[in-house]
Amino acid sequence: MNDGGIFAMTRKEPVGVVGQIIPWNAPIVMFAWKLAPALAMGCTVVLKPAEQTPLTALAIAALVKEAGFPAGVVNVVTGYGPTAGAALAQHPDVRKVAFTGSIELSYDTPEK
């Protein structure tokens, strides 16, 4: 962008491993909305679906594998938020966490 002699540029780079925590009420859409941008940027993904909808995420992960993505690029971890979600959010190799859910559930997900 050039505005009055000032040049500004945004450069986007992959951050590495991205943790993604999605809600129960739109598991397919949320999986896609979280996964696509991360993969487009060259990041690997560890996704934790809501405990009510783990099979949806596992089925999509199977389709990703069938599509030919390398092992380890898209990973699904199932479990409860206070345990699996917190472990994902606190893991030292996870550089970014994308969380979609209620305010109440966010209290169970520690800040990174």
Structure in words:
- This protein is of the alpha/beta class.
- It has one domain: Aldehyde Dehydrogenase, Chain A, domain 1, CATH 3.40.605.10.
- 37% of the residues lie in helices and 21% in strands.
- It is built from 4 helices and 6 strands, in the order βββαβαβαβα.
- The chain has helices at 27-40, 54-66, 81-90, 103-106; strands at 2-3, 6-7, 17-21, 44-48, 74-76, 94-99.
- The strands form 2 sheets. The protein has a 4-stranded parallel beta sheet, sandwiched between helices. A two-stranded antiparallel sheet has the order 1-2.
- A hairpin with a 2-residue loop joins strand 1 and strand 2.
- The longest helix has 14 residues, at 27-40.
- The protein is globular, with a radius of gyration of 16 Å.
Quick synopsis:
The chain is α/β, with parallel strands linked by helices. Helix content is 37%, strand content 21%.
- CA-atom Rg in angstroms: 16 Å
Helix count, DSSP H or I runs of 4 or more residues:
4
Shape: globular
Structural class: alpha/beta
Amount of beta strand: 15-25%
Spatial separation of the terminal alpha carbons: 32 Å
State the main characteristics:
about 110 residues, globular, Aldehyde Dehydrogenase, Chain A, domain 1, four-stranded parallel beta sheet, single chain, alpha/beta, about 35% helix, Ald_DH/histidinol_DH, two-stranded antiparallel ribbon, aldehyde dehydrogenase (NAD(+))
Task: Show the helix and strand layout.
Layout: E1 2-3, E2 6-7, E3 17-21, H1 27-40, E4 44-48, H2 54-66, E5 74-76, H3 81-90, E6 94-99, H4 103-106
Parallel strand pairs: 3-4, 3-6, 4-5
Antiparallel strand pairs: 1-2
